[in-house]
Automatic annotation (TrEMBL):
GO terms for biological process: glutaminyl-tRNAGln biosynthesis via transamidation; regulation of translational fidelity; translation. InterPro entries: Asp/Glu-ADT_sf_sub_c, GatC. It catalyses: L-aspartyl-tRNA(Asn) + L-glutamine + ATP + H2O = L-asparaginyl-tRNA(Asn) + L-glutamate + ADP + phosphate + 2 H(+); L-glutamyl-tRNA(Gln) + L-glutamine + ATP + H2O = L-glutaminyl-tRNA(Gln) + L-glutamate + ADP + phosphate + H(+). HAMAP family: GatC. The keyword Cell division does not apply. It comes from Tropicimonas isoalkanivorans. Keywords: ATP-binding, Ligase, Nucleotide-binding, Protein biosynthesis, Transferase. SUPFAM superfamilies: Glu-tRNAGln amidotransferase C subunit (SSF141000). This is Aspartyl/glutamyl-tRNA(Asn/Gln) amidotransferase subunit C. The gene is gatC. Pfam families: GatC.
Amino acid sequence: MSIDESTARRVAQLARIKVEDPALPALAGEFNAILGFIEQLNEVDVEGVEPMTSVTPMRLKRRADVVTDGGYQDKVLSNAPDAREGFFAVPKVVE
């Protein structure tokens, strides 16, 4: 697949990037270089290769998925201009 100047102009328009007409040939060349690299990656045989999270084998750190209140109610409410009974107090906006 090859990208021409009209396609590069359309891609720039879709990305909301202003590209002047003299810069379109260079942009099309960059797009073609990227597509060439992707074609090289498609030639690599990855059959049987496990996905990796890092180049060194490690397990991802996981925490227990439990609901908590955070335990910081006093610290959070200390920043509030008005707090009552353990909650933020705000003015009434609907009658």
